[in-house]
Design brief:
This protein has about 375 residues and is an alpha+beta fold. The strands form three sheets. It has a six-stranded mixed sheet, with helices on one face. It has a six-stranded antiparallel β-barrel with strand order 6-7-8-11-10-9.
Length: about 375
């Protein structure tokens, strides 16, 4: 295991859902299980997830406010003694399986990316046509995302998993002379914004030379303000073939960029709610939520159930004490589901604000602003 990893999972094989979600998010993590777990461990940098049985290894670590990781304890049973033991060990959240998969994903996102941005490798959306070479073959693809360590491509034909290729960063992206960068295919996913006819490929750069690092840094800075429009060699032929007034390349780019939201931005939309009732709930401190603002929320209840769709109005922002929300015109079905949710033990329970503050805890996601 790497010293002081960014994310560490310790279990006896039970936390497959957590590992699957982190892999889907393309987040690197270290995993220790069973007899491989030592009595003492160095704290990971950002996130620690363990079962209750393995939680003791984190008892001496500092909390997030002191530079330590966010700690998530996953427990299959419920007892006041266990909850108190996790609280004393500095755990921030208790997770009770079965938990709604999306709620767990959002909680992991929040733990990884909220607050001060600590990503070493910020990503930018690009949406530009680029060239790739695999051996003697040259192929085109759309570079949809770029970071200092790699990127993601959208293409009609899949790239082989594990293949090594060279990727061109054109002058239009970086302002520098074109550069060809060596990369390895680390993940292939079928299905892009146009469905299963496209493939999303994740790349990891290999041994960038100084000039390559300079080009990538310049492209990141140039694309940070928004995806550029990069002409391709095929534009002339496409223009002759497309219907009058239609720009198919730009339509495709716009469709994709509408779906791409950085993980950090998505994490900022995650709200941990407390004391929920059919009338409303209180959410953690959010300086941007001012009185009168209306939000469209998805509230995640039991595992496998669809989220509860509500519109909530901010009635009061109490700073560090949180934000009070009032639900506007709940349907009868939504009201009943919230009443059922209140009667259950929460799937995700905050641990560091006291027993009463954790009552009626829920994970919700801001879908957008509502209508005043």
């Amino acid at each position: 295991m790497a010293d002081n990893p960014s994310v560490l999972i310790v279990d006896d094989g039970e936390l497959g859902d957590v590992r699957d979600i982190l892999e889907d998010l393309e987040v690197d993590y270290s995993h220790l299980r069973g007899s491989a777990v030592p009595r003492e461990l160095a704290a990971p940098q950002r996130l620690f997830v363990s079962t209750a049985r393995r939680a003791a290894v984190a008892a001496s670590w500092p909390g997030p406010a002191a530079g330590g990781p966010v700690k998530l304890g996953v427990v299959a049973e419920d007892s006041n003694a266990l909850r108190e033991a996790l609280r004393r060990s500095g755990f921030d959240f208790l997770v009770r399986p079965p938990v709604h998969r999306e709620a767990l994903r959002l909680l992991l996102l929040r733990a990884l990316y909220t607050g001060e941005e600590r990503r070493r490798d910020p990503r930018v959306s690009v949406g530009a046509e680029v060239s790739c070479r695999i051996g003697l073959r040259r192929r085109s693809a759309t570079l949809i995302e770029l970071s200092s360590r790699g990127g993601r491509l959208l293409s009609r034909q899949p790239f082989p998993l594990g293949a090594r290729l060279t990727l061109e960063i054109p002058t239009e992206l970086s302002g520098e002379p074109p550069a060809w960068l060596r990369a390895k295919v680390v993940r292939v996913q079928e299905g892009g914004p146009l469905g299963a006819t496209e493939h999303v490929t994740a790349l990891s750069f290999e041994s960038l030379r100084p000039e390559g690092e300079r080009v990538v840094a310049a492209a990141l800075e140039r694309c940070a303000g928004g995806p550029p429009v990069v002409p391709s060699e095929a534009d002339g032929a496409l223009a002759a073939a497309r219907p009058q007034g239609a720009d198919r390349r730009r339509q495709r780019r716009a469709a994709f960029n509408g779906e791409v939201v950085s993980l950090h931005d998505e994490a900022r939309r995650v709200l941990i709610g407390r004391d929920i009732s059919p009338e409303g709930m209180r959410v953690e401190a959010q300086p941007d939520l001012q009185a009168g603002r209306v939000l469209h929320l998805a509230i995640y209840a039991a595992a496998g159930e669809p989220p509860i769709d509500v519109r909530a109005r901010v009635v009061r922002n109490d700073g560090a004490a949180g934000v009070a929300l009032h639900f506007d015109e709940l349907s009868g079905g939504a009201s009943r589901r919230i009443e059922e949710l209140v009667a259950q033990l929460p799937g995700v329970e905050p641990l560091q604000d006291g027993e009463c503050a954790a009552l009626g805890s829920v994970v919700s996601r801001v879908l957008g602003d509502g209508v005043n």
